[in-house]
UniProtKB/TrEMBL annotation:
InterPro entries: AAA+_ATPase (IPR003593), ABC_transporter-like_ATP-bd (IPR003439), ABC_transporter-like_CS (IPR017871), P-loop_NTPase (IPR027417), Siderophore_ABC-ATPase (IPR051535). CDD domains: ABC_Iron-Siderophores_B12_Hemin. It comes from Cohnella luojiensis. GO terms for biological process: iron ion transport. This is ABC transporter ATP-binding protein. Pfam families: ABC_tran (PF00005). It is found in: Cell membrane. Keywords: ATP-binding, Cell membrane, Ion transport, Iron, Iron transport, Membrane, Nucleotide-binding, Transport. It is a peripheral membrane protein. Residues 4-240 form the ABC transporter domain. SUPFAM superfamilies: P-loop containing nucleoside triphosphate hydrolases. GO terms for cellular component: plasma membrane. Its main location: membrane. One of its GO terms (molecular function) is ATP binding.
């Protein structure tokens, strides 16, 4: 089942077409990661899904309705987006930032009501930002800032979250902090999350559904154990890599060792049978 989907979606910047006749169905209640090389159309697709970019052809559908024909506030009650490198006015506190998430639910420019305040407090608590609520956003660490912006998205009370490279420019600890939070939101609240991810191992570890794109076209799609293969890495990223099961999680782990060439010797990568065996073990462990 899919509340959010695209049908024959084509996108362009000026005369340059980026995405061509894309048909994508986002699984409900899962984390979906869009992966691909730079310029593959990942962020462009996310912008169209968030109603930021208007299609040149086809459409994005939310609950069976074309999203670009729906009122902005109506869409914002069901779908929230965290863009790349968001910025806030100097001196704005975390709580003030999070309160902006309640705008779609307000009439005119009314004050925050009891429900608004309840959602703000819940979002702060869910993201571990309650202790920082009165601190200026520009005085936070990278990971804390990302959590503050995620809290704002949560305060919207939407069932769907779109995130464009949520770990960009963060160090390893802050990357894990953000990804662990998203995993928690998905598992505990069944949020549908669609995110653009550069780190393939993050995508395979935290997402249950991968969409591998090249030149605005889906080349591979499915669960990480099926999608993350040496052949996919050659076709999509032009790299040679071993794919082995992560010793801790069982998720496929990408170990690149060179740029792909036209003809290469037989690979010594883990076999499909090995990946399948580990995938079954992983599924049983999660059951």
């Amino acid at each position: 089942m899919s509340r959010l989907s695209t049908n024959q979606l084509s996108l362009a910047y000026g005369s340059r077409q980026i995405v061509q006749e894309l048909n994508l169905h986002v699984p409900d209640g899962l984390i979906t990661a869009l992966v691909g090389a730079n310029g593959s159309g990942k962020s462009t697709i996310l912008k169209a899904m968030a109603r930021i970019l208007t299609p040149m052809q086809g459409g994005v559908y939310l609950d069976g309705k074309i999203i670009h024909r729906q009122p902005t506030k109506e869409v914002a009650r069901h779908l929230a987006i965290l863009p790349q490198n968001p910025s806030s006015p100097e001196g704005l506190t975390v709580r003030e930032l999070v309160s902006f998430g309640r705008y779609p639910h307000q009439k005119g420019f009314g004050n925050l009501n009891a429900e608004d305040n309840r959602m703000i407090e819940w979002a702060l608590q869910a993201t571990g930002m309650s202790a920082f609520s009165m601190r200026p956003v520009d005085q936070l660490s990278g990971g804390q800032r990302q959590r503050a912006w995620i809290a704002m998205a949560l305060a919207q009370g939407t069932e769907v979250l779109l995130l464009d490279e949520p770990t960009t420019f963060l160090d390893m600890a802050h990357q894990m902090e953000v990804m662990t939070l998203l995993e928690k939101l998905n598992k505990e609240q069944k949020r549908t999350i669609i995110m653009v991810v550069h780190d393939l191992n993050h995508a395979a570890r935290y997402a249950q559904h991968l969409v591998a794109l090249k030149d605005g076209t889906i080349l591979y799609e499915g669960n990480p154990e099926v999608v993350m293969t040496p052949q996919m890495l050659r076709d999509v990223f032009n790299i040679d890599a071993d794919v082995i099961p992560d010793p801790r999680t069982g998720a496929p782990l990408c170990l690149p060792y060179g740029l792909a060439e036209e003809e290469t010797a037989p690979s010594t990568t883990a076999s499909a049978e090995t990946i399948t065996t580990y995938s079954e073990d992983r599924i049983q462990a999660m059951a």
